[in-house]
Structure formats: structure tokens, C-alpha cells
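A.,

Following up on our hallway conversation. C-alpha cells first:
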């Protein structure tokens, strides 16, 4: 029986820079072994859409993290979001990424917790000509000018500044995950 609750799992730091490698087919099978249905993976960066009767996303994340730790041999942080949460994050993006696609890159970062006002203020102080930030609850929006891509761009450790773990996706990936997370026919 197919479940009506759809979720998107975002795995942090999987298949990035040659570390924490897992084939998407293996990841799909891992999710199916947990009893999830309609499991679909999207691109090689740890995005999984699935169905579950469970309604507690924190419980789902812990379950998936436990199975991944056994499979990968080390902890992997997992963010589980309902499609409505992805839609809300995408619609609140203050940087209008589609309209400004030619001149900027835009990422949506899902955070493990809402940062304090002081930490958010500290991040805002790091904005410059190459970076712009906005924090809304547990979502960080980052936009940076394409002319500063690569080694010209200074690195900002947003996790350290905000005091929260996070996993980033481009706005295009988030839009595709929203599309893929619609209930199957």
C-alpha cells in the first residue's frame, strides 16, 4: 500500500569532493529497506524523495541517519522535509534567482536549527560585493556574483558563524525536488 506522506531527504556532505560516496541505486535500496515506498533519488548529491506513514520528520531523519551510519561507517546528517517546507523556502527566496540567473549563483541552505539573532547579525556583517545572505527561520539564502566564482571568492563558514549545521542546494535543485515530491499518480 502506498503512503500519502511524501518527504524529501537531503543528505549532508554525500558524494561531494570524492568523500562519503554512495551510489544512488544503493541509496534507493537503503531507503526501501527502511520500509519507505515510492523512493526516487535525484542527482548524485544525496537527494531522496520517499513515502512513509510516519509524520515525525525528526524521527525519520534519525532512522535514516542510523542506517546510513552502518552503511557508510560514519555519521551522515540528514534533513527530512515535507514538500510544503521546500515550497515555502523556495517562494521566500529574496534573491529572485531565476530573474538574476545570468549574474549570480543562488543556494538555499537548510539549517539544523534557527540561528540566534546575534549569530545572524554576525553573518550579515560578512556580506560583501561577492556574497549576500538572508536568514529566515531555519533557511539561509546565499547569493554570490558569478564573477567571484572559484578561487576569487572568499570562503565563509556559515555553519560556524550561525552555530548550526546545514546542507545547501541550488535553487534549481530545490525546484526539481518540489516537482519530484508530488504524489505519484
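Then the amino acids I'd put at each of the 185 positions:
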Amino acid at each position: 500500500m502506498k503512503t500519502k506522506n511524501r518527504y524529501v531527504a537531503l543528505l549532508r556532505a554525500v558524494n561531494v569532493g570524492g568523500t562519503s560516496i554512495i551510489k544512488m541505486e544503493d541509496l534507493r535500496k537503503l531507503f526501501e529497506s527502511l520500509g519507505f515506498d515510492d523512493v526516487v533519488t535525484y542527482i548524485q548529491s544525496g537527494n531522496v524523495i520517499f513515502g512513509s506513514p510516519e509524520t515525525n520528520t525528526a524521527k525519520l531523519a534519525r532512522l535514516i541517519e542510523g542506517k546510513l551510519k552502518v552503511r557508510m561507517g560514519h555519521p551522515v546528517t540528514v534533513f527530512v522535509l515535507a514538500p510544503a517546507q521546500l515550497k515555502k523556502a523556495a517562494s521566500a527566496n529574496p534573491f529572485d534567482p531565476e530573474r538574476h540567473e545570468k549574474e549570480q549563483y543562488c543556494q538555499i541552505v537548510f539549517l539544523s536549527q534557527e540561528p540566534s539573532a546575534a549569530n545572524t547579525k554576525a553573518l550579515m556583517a560578512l556580506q560583501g560585493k561577492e556574497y549576500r545572505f538572508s536568514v529566515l527561520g531555519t533557511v539561509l539564502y546565499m547569493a554570490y556574483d558569478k564573477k567571484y566564482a572559484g578561487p576569487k571568492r572568499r570562503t565563509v563558514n556559515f555553519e560556524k558563524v550561525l552555530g548550526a549545521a546545514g546542507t545547501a542546494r541550488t535553487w534549481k535543485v530545490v525546484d526539481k525536488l518540489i516537482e519530484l515530491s508530488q504524489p505519484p499518480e
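The chain has a mean pLDDT of 89. Curious whether your intuition agrees with the design.

B.
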